[in-house]
Structure formats: C-alpha cells, structure tokens
Specification:
This protein has a single domain, classed as MetI-like (MetI-like fold, Orthogonal Bundle). Helix content is 77%, strand content 0%. The protein is built from twelve helices and no strands.
Length: 269
C-alpha cells in the first residue's frame, strides 16, 4: 500500500488540531470580550464576565455540588465495576460477552428516558429526586466509560497467574484485588476515573430532571446564563473546562507519586 506523503499527513494533522482547538480558543476569547459581533477580533477585553460569574450566589454551591456528584460517581463506579470485572475475568469468563453487552446499554438509553424511569420507580423518600438518585443515575450513565478501560487493562495482564500466586501465599480475595490486581490495572482505573469525572461533571439532563433547583449543579447554572448572557456562559464554560483539566492533572500527579515508591522498591531489588 502506498503511504501518504509527509506533507499531506502534516496537513491532515494540522486540520484535525485546528478543528479541535479553535472552538476552545474562540470560547476563551469570547469570555473576555467586551463586544464581538461585527469585527474579526473582539473590540475590547475585560474580566467583567468572570467577576459576575464568581459573584453569583449559586456559583460556589453549584460547583461544590458538581464535585460531589462527580467524585461520588467515580468512587461508586470503581466499587462496582472493578470487583465485577475481575470476578468475570477469573471465575466466569463465559459471561464476559453478556457483561460487555450490559455495559454498552447506557449508550442506547437516552438520558431523558433514564431519568424519567428512575423518577417513576424511586418515587418514595428518601430517594425521590434526591442527590442519591442523581449519583445512581450518573453511575449507570457513565458505566461504559469506567468498564472498558478496566476490562482492557485486565486483559493486558496475566490475571490468572497473579491470582494463583497470591492465593499460594495465603492472600484472600479482597487482598488480591486491592494489593495485587489494582496496582497492575492502575492505568485503566485512572483512565476510567478521568472519563467518568469529566462526563458526570458536565452532565446537564440527568441533574436537571432528577434534582433540578433542589440540588443545582454547575451545568444547570451554565445553561441558565446561556439564556441570559452568552459572555457569562462562556466564562462559566471556561471555568468548567479548567476545573476538569486541573482535576485530571491532580489525579495523574497523585497516581505518579503512588507509583514512584513501587518503582524504587523494584529497582532496589
């Protein structure tokens, strides 16, 4: 097969990068523009829209609520997905196709249908339209993003040999999962956690239908400002993107520090 010329490859990469980055740059620019409607570049620049967003009484509340829901969805997802995937890979490998099918079902269920179904089924206190129901819905909605990286990581290691070796040393199932399997699939755990955090942090439909104003999240506040002033909405979008980006960097930094002692110990041996 003929390879594409280097110039054409570079052009395709440049077009793809521009396609991905230009909307982000435009959003950042619009969030600091005084007026940008008839000229190629903004007529002036200001931080007034950020100040207005920060001064809003619901800014810190919605940001905190989104953090709570996102982190809770990551933790609950890990608690259910990691043991289940490990158990299927080691004990009942014949059930893996069924598990793969179940994990892609959330892609075929619209968020509106999922939210309305949960509201109808769990219409009794303390679950009715509560943050607990919202977290549960987000866990279901984001399951594919958590499952696929963890499943791929388990397939990339010799999970049976690791399990048998740990059993021969007297470890129980919980110890094997925490001290043997989890460190070996840490890249998959981190990838799934980042995907779930980013997905849930920006989720609007589930939060708006399940809790609404009683537990307002950051995307709900952003949509409200979209109807009032697009410049403030752009500032909130930039804040949301920046928060998710810094959270991702923090998770990667913590995981890197956690792997460093292990690498030093292996080097000493």
């Amino acid at each position: 097969m003929k390879q594409r010329p280097p110039v054409l490859q570079g052009l395709l990469v440049a077009l793809f990068v521009a396609y991905m980055i230009l909307p982000i740059i435009a959003t950042y620019t619009f969030s600091i523009a005084t007026k940008w409607d008839i000229t190629l570049m903004p007529e002036g620049y200001t931080l007034e829209w950020y100040q207005t967003a920060f001064d809003h009484p619901y800014f810190s509340i919605t940001l905190t609520n989104s953090f709570i829901v996102s982190i809770a969805a990551v933790l609950v997802g890990l608690l259910f997905i990691v043991p289940t995937t490990y158990w299927v890979h080691t004990r009942v490998p014949a059930a893996k196709p069924l598990l793969d099918l179940l994990m892609i079902l959330p892609f075929g269920i619209p968020a509106v249908v999922l939210a309305l179904a949960l509201i109808r089924v769990y219409a009794f206190p303390p679950f009715a339209r509560s943050p607990f129901l919202l977290i549960s819905a987000c866990v279901i909605f984001s399951m594919p993003f958590m499952y696929r990286p963890i499943s791929n990581s388990l397939m990339a290691i010799d999970v049976h040999t690791l399990t048998e070796s740990a059993l021969s040393l007297g470890a129980n199932t919980l110890q094997i999962l925490i001290r043997v399997i989890a460190p070996n699939i840490l890249p998959g755990i981190l990838s799934g956690s980042l995907l779930v955090f980013a997905t849930v942090f920006a989720e609007f439909t589930l939060a708006n239908l399940i809790t609404g104003a009683s537990f307002k999240t950051f995307p709900i506040l952003l949509v409200e400002f979209t109807r009032r002033d697009g410049r403030i909405a752009a500032a909130l979008s930039v804040i949301s993107f920046t928060v998710a980006w810094f959270a991702s960097i923090a998770i990667l930094w913590v995981s890197g520090r956690g792997r460093k002692p292990t690498e030093e110990a292996l080097g000493a041996r």
